[in-house]
Write a structure and sequence with these properties.
single chain, Beta-lactamase, elongated, Beta-lactam/transpept-like, transferase
C-alpha cells in the first residue's frame, strides 16, 4: 500500500454535501445511515490509497456506499479485507453468504494475518487486478496477483462478482488456505562414538474416561506398565486421564484389545526418547533442549490449499535449513555401566566422569533415589569432606609451608585454636611425612596446616581446580561449589577438612580431579562444537604441586584409605567422609582419575567413604 494521503478539501461541509441528495447524470444515488439518498461524484481510476482515504472519510460522515464504479467497489473491497472486516467485504460481492464463509475461513487458516492489497489496474467490462501480499513473519512473505470482475447490479450499485479465486489463485468454493510451520527430518542425539542416545519416536497415549471399566483396562496395561492398576485408574474418580504413554513395541501386542474397550482412546504422538529405555541421566534433559533448539532453527513455512477431504497442496513457503545431529561427549558404554553399578544402592548415589585432557563429560549417572531428589550430580551442594584435602594440601605446598616429605604430626585428636579435631576413629600415626598423612587422611594434620595459611589461601587454591567457577556449558546446568574466605583460625580448620562453609557438587569435585590429572582446569563440554564460557579463568596451580598431589593420591590407593583398589593400575584418588546436619550422619566420597578419565563418586548418608570406593572399583573394573 502507498502512503496515506491527506485531503484538506474534504472538510465537514464537503462531506455533508457529499451526503446531500443531488441529481444529474454521471452520479449514482446512495443511502447514508440515516436513510436519505445522496450522490457521490464518480472516482475514475484512482489508486487504492486515494480510494481508501475517500471511503474512510465518507464513512466517518455517516455515508454507506452503493459503489457507482468498478474502481470504487474494488477499493472498498480491498479496504475491508485489509481491516479484517469480513462482513463488509462480503457485502460488496454478489454472494455475501458464500463470500463471508470463504473469507472467514481464509483469515482463520492464515492465522488471523491481514493482507495488504493494491489495485494493479482495471480493464474493460469491469475487470480488475489486485496485488495481494501476506506477511506472516520476518522473511515469510507471500505475494501474488489475482483478477476478478465487477458487475453493475442496478439499484445495488457495482458489486464484486464473487469467485474465491479473487482472494488467491486457484482458491475454489471447496477449498481454503492454511498457514503452517514446517520442520525438516528430526536429528539424532549421538554419543562420542556416533551411537544414538536420543531419537524422535512415535508413542501412544492411552486415555481413559469415566465410561471405562478400570478392571478391564488395568490388566492389559499392566503387561507393559506394571504400576497401572485398577485402583490407580479408579483414583481418577471418573475424570479423563492419560493412564500411560507407551512405546510402539509396548502398545503393539495390546493395541487392538485396548481400542475395543469402551472409554479408551488411543492418541499417537511423536516424542524425543532414549533409544535404550533403561538409560536415565540428568544430562538428557539438556540434550533434549538443544535438540529442540535445532528443530526450531530448522523450521520452514508453508501456505497450503486445503480441500474438504483434508488433502492439502503447498502453494507457497520455504524449507528451513536441516538440523544437524548432536554429537555429545557421552560415552554410552561408560554411562550404562555407571548407572548399573549405582542401581543397587538404597541411598542417593551419583557418578560424574570427565576427560581431563579435553573437559569432555563422559558420564553423569544417578540411581533412582538420587533422581527423586533432582539433578544432584550437577547441582547438589554438599560438604566435600576429606576430598577437599587435595585443595588444602595444594595451598600448603604453594605457601611453602611444607613439602611432600616434610614430617608432620598426625595425632588421634588435636585442639587447634580451641577447635578439637579428631581423625576417623581417632587413629594416631604420630609424626609422619606429609604424603603419608595425606594417604591416610589425617584431619589433625590438615587442620594444623590450614591455621597458618592466609584467609584466602583455600579459596584461591580451590579456584585453581575449578571449584567456585561458574560455567555456562551448552546442554548442562551446573554448580561447582564454594570455598569462602576463612577469616578466623576456627574457620580455616573446618575448611581444611571440607567441612564448615565449604560445599561442592559431585560435578565440581570431578572437575577438581580432572584439574589435578591434567595440570590445569579444562573447560567442561557436553556437545562437540558447543564451547563453554567461564565467569573467570584462574591460573593453574604450579606443575610441581599437581605432580606432588598425583603422587600422594596414588599412595592413597596403593597403601592408604583406598587400598581396596590397589589392583587398578595408574589409579589415583582421595577418599572423603563428610558430616552433615547435626553431625550424626556422614556422606561418602571418592574422587580420582585413571588415565584420561577423572571422576567423582558420591553416596549420600553412606556413613563412610567405603561405599563410594566400592562403586568406583566396580565402575573401573567394568
Amino acid at each position: 500500500m502507498g502512503p496515506a494521503i491527506d485531503f484538506p478539501e474534504l472538510g465537514a461541509a464537503s462531506l455533508q454535501a457529499a451526503c446531500t441528495q443531488r441529481a444529474g447524470g454521471g452520479e449514482r444515488r446512495h443511502r447514508p445511515a440515516s436513510g436519505m439518498i445522496v450522490a457521490v461524484p464518480l472516482l475514475r481510476r484512482r489508486p487504492v490509497p486515494l480510494l481508501l482515504t475517500v471511503a474512510a472519510a465518507l464513512a466517518a460522515a455517516g455515508c454507506s456506499f452503493g459503489p457507482d464504479q468498478p474502481e470504487t467497489v474494488v477499493g472498498e473491497f480491498a479496504a475491508a479485507l485489509e481491516a479484517g472486516d469480513v462482513r463488509a467485504a462480503a457485502e460488496l460481492t454478489t454472494d455475501p453468504a458464500a463470500a463471508a464463509a470463504t473469507i472467514d475461513g481464509v483469515f482463520e487458516g492464515l492465522g488471523g494475518v491481514r493482507p495488504d492489497l493494491e489495485l494493479a489496474g482495471t480493464g474493460d467490462g469491469g475487470t480488475f487486478e489486485l496485488d495481494v501480499a501476506w506477511h506472516f513473519a520476518e522473511g515469510r512473505d507471500w505475494s501474488y496477483r489475482t483478477s476478478g470482475s465487477a458487475l453493475d447490479v442496478d439499484a445495488e450499485g457495482w458489486r464484486i462478482e464473487w469467485d474465491p479465486a479473487v482472494l488467491a489463485p486457484g482458491l475454489t468454493a471447496g477449498t481454503t488456505l492454511s498457514y503452517t510451520t514446517t520442520v525438516g527430518p528430526p536429528p539424532s542425539v549421538l554419543d562420542r562414538g556416533g551411537r544414538p542416545i536420543l531419537e524422535q519416536q512415535v508413542v501412544t497415549l492411552v486415555n481413559v474416561d469415566a465410561t471405562a471399566d478400570p478392571a478391564a483396562v488395568a490388566p492389559l496395561l499392566a503387561t507393559a506398565a506394571p504400576t497401572v492398576t485398577a485402583e490407580s485408574l479408579a483414583a481418577a474418580e471418573g475424570k479423563p486421564v492419560t493412564a500411560v504413554t507407551l512405546r510402539d513395541a509396548d502398545i503393539a501386542p495390546i493395541e487392538a484389545r485396548l481400542a475395543a474397550l469402551p472409554g479408551v482412546t488411543l492418541v499417537r504422538q511423536t516424542r524425543l526418547l532414549t533409544v535404550d529405555r533403561a538409560l536415565a541421566s540428568p544430562v538428557l534433559s539438556g540434550l533434549g533442549e538443544l535438540w529442540q533448539q535445532g528443530q526450531d532453527a530448522s523450521a520452514g513455512w508453508a501456505v497450503q490449499t486445503v480441500s474438504g477431504d483434508g488433502s492439502a497442496r503447498r502453494v507457497a513457503g520455504a524449507d528451513g535449513p536441516p538440523a544437524p545431529d548432536l554429537r555429545s561427549t557421552l560415552d554410552l558404554g561408560l554411562q550404562t555401566r555407571a548407572e548399573a553399578v549405582l542401581a543397587p544402592l538404597p541411598q542417593p548415589a551419583v557418578i560424574v566422569a570427565i576427560e581431563p585432557s579435553t573437559g569432555a563429560v563422559r558420564a553423569v549417572a544417578q540411581n533412582a533415589a538420587a533422581d527423586a531428589e533432582g539433578p544432584i550430580a550437577l547441582t547438589g551442594l554438599y560438604p566435600p569432606g576429606s576430598t577437599f584435602k587435595t585443595v588444602t594440601t595444594s595451598a600448603a605446598l604453594q605457601a611453602g609451608a611444607v613439602t611432600p616429605d616434610t614430617v608432620v604430626p598426625c595425632p588421634g585428636t588435636a585442639n587447634i585454636e580451641g577447635r578439637v579435631i579428631p581423625n576417623d576413629d581417632s587413629f594416631d600415626l604420630g609424626p609422619v611425612p606429609l604424603h603419608t598423612a595425606f594417604a591416610f587422611s589425617c584431619n589433625t594434620t590438615m587442620g594444623r596446616l590450614a591455621v597458618g595459611l592466609p584467609a584466602t589461601a583455600l579459596t584461591d587454591a580451590a579456584l585453581q581446580f575449578g571449584l567456585g567457577v561458574d560455567y555456562v556449558t551448552p546442554g548442562l546446568v551446573t554448580v561447582t561449589g564454594s570455598a569462602p574466605e576463612a577469616q578466623t583460625p576456627a574457620e580455616r580448620v573446618e575448611s581444611a577438612i571440607g567441612q564448615g562453609r565449604v560445599t561442592a557438587s559431585p560435578f565440581g569435585m570431578a572437575l577438581v580431579a580432572a584439574s589435578i590429572a591434567h595440570g590445569s582446569t579444562p573447560l567442561p563440554v557436553l556437545v562437540e562444537g558447543r564451547p563453554t564460557v567461564a565467569d573467570r579463568t584462574p591460573g593453574a596451580a604450579p606443575a610441581e604441586v599437581t605432580a606432588a598431589l598425583r603422587t600422594m593420591m596414588r599412595e592413597t590407593v596403593t597403601g592408604g584409605t583406598a587400598s581396596t583398589l590397589r589392583d587398578l593400575p595408574e589409579l589415583v584418588g582421595k577418599t572423603g567422609t563428610a558430616e552433615y546436619g547435626d553431625g550424626t550422619g556422614a556422606h561418602g566420597w571418592f574422587v580420582g582419575s585413571q588415565g584420561d578419565l577423572a571422576f567423582a563418586v558420591f553416596v549420600a548418608g553412606a556413613g563412610s567413604s567405603a561405599p563410594a570406593v566400592d562403586v568406583a572399583g566396580r565402575l573401573l573394573r567394568g
